[in-house]
Amino acid sequence: MIFSRKRAGGARHARDERAAEVLDSQEVEESPVPSRGPYDVSEAPDMPRLDLGSLQIPAVPEVEVRVQADPQGVIQQVVLVYGENALQLGVFAAPRSEGIWDEVREEIRQSLFNDGAAAREVEGEYGTELHARVRTPDGLTDLRFVGIDGPRWMVRGVYQGAAATDPDAAGPLAICLDGLVVDRGQEAKPVREPLPLRLPREMAEQASQENPAPGQREA
After folding, report:
1. Dihedral, CA atoms, 196, 208, 61, 166, nearest 10 degrees?
2. 210: Cβ contacts below 8 Å, ≥ 6 apart
3. In what helix (H) or strand (E) does residue 85 lie, and over which residues does it extend?
4. Rounded mean pLDDT of the chain?
5. pLDDT of residue 109
């Protein structure tokens, strides 16, 4: 099943909001914080977000959040859509001592190569990105892979549409990525295991009504 929610409201750019907070803070030198996200839940600035468990997505105007979940409400895929552009998000467990994006990026590049698609590394706002052109049933499609290492987690984003070749075209999608919050939890997890995502309560209730358990079905 797929749920879709159009984001609305006056969310501000995460970088601008954080900059204002830093200027107002009396303790900034004692407790430095990132100038932008994705943020760990322990350091995230307050702003309206859609809570999907391990990921909290900022409420940004004109961005539609599309969530694919199973009947139990466990999310399989999260995609943000803005016009003809899309950003698919994933979040994974990482070790405490080091990031994993460099290693994951190389594996993605090798997988694309094995499928006959060339990929090249490009320096972007978050460091080294991977740009590729793949063949799909709809023709050739450009993809831009972005990875951000955090404390014991890694966020992977995959841009499609014009945003895959022109970062400026991402617009509000980039704002969503900048304001993203990761709630890793404290329990031990295997490295690279996807962190659990769940539907918000109102979406889960809708899923339960549309797909009742066998014992709850009406005769």
Report:
1. 50
2. 1
3. strand 85-93
4. 83
5. 96
Q: How far is CA 215 from CA 71, 155, 219, in A?
A: 14, 39, 10
Supply the pLDDT for residue 137: 86
* Predicted local confidence at residue 32, as pLDDT: 56
In the chain, the number of structural domains is 1
Domain limits for position 17? 2-210
In a domain, residue 100? The reply is: yes
Backbone region of residue 205 per phi and psi (left: phi > 0; alpha: psi in -120 to 50; beta: other values)? alpha
Predicted model pTM? 0.79
Phi and psi for 158 in degrees, rounded to 5? Answer: -125, 110
Whether residue 26 lies inside any domain: the answer is: yes
Q: What is the pLDDT of residue 34?
A: 64
Residues of the chain scoring pLDDT < 50:
1-2, 7-31, 216-219
Find, among 158, 147, 52, the residue nearest to 94 by Cα.
Answer: 147
Give, for 206, the enclosing helix (H) or strand (E): helix 201-210
Query: Is-contact 18 36, C-beta < 8 A?
Result: yes
Distance (Å, whole) CA 90 – CA 55: 9
The pair of three-digit structure tokens given for residue 203, joined into one six-digit string: 């979406």
